[in-house]
Write a structure and sequence with these properties.
3 helices, 94 residues, S16 Ribosomal Protein, Chain: A, alpha+beta, five-stranded mixed beta sheet
Length: 94
């Protein structure tokens, strides 16, 4: 099962509001998701995004692919940089 991080629209007509969800890639845009990991409100003057950072990083570690828009939001929030830095550093040997 391929998991994607993408937006799911929940806003009313002409008032978009999105959830950032982890979802099976074969599901439709607003279909049943595996987990809600954040929100995005594009109508605020300063783009308002919130993420459950630990859950986003966990999904990325397990191979979830973010959509183009979600990747941009993750870059703006700094979560993608955290993930890339963690990939570069070797894991401590136990």
């Amino acid at each position: 099962m391929a998991v994607h991080l993408r937006l799911s629209r929940i806003g009313r007509h002409k008032r978009p509001f999105y959830r950032v969800v982890a979802i099976d890639s074969r599901k439709r845009r607003d279909g049943r998701c595996l987990e809600v990991v954040g929100t995005y409100d594009p109508l605020k003057e300063s783009v308002n995004t919130t993420f459950k950072e630990d859950r986003v990083l966990e999904w990325l570690r397990h191979g979830a692919q973010p959509s183009v828009t979600v990747r941009t939001l993750l870059k703006r929030s700094g979560i993608l940089k955290t993930f890339e830095d963690a990939k570069k550093t070797p894991a401590p040997a136990s």
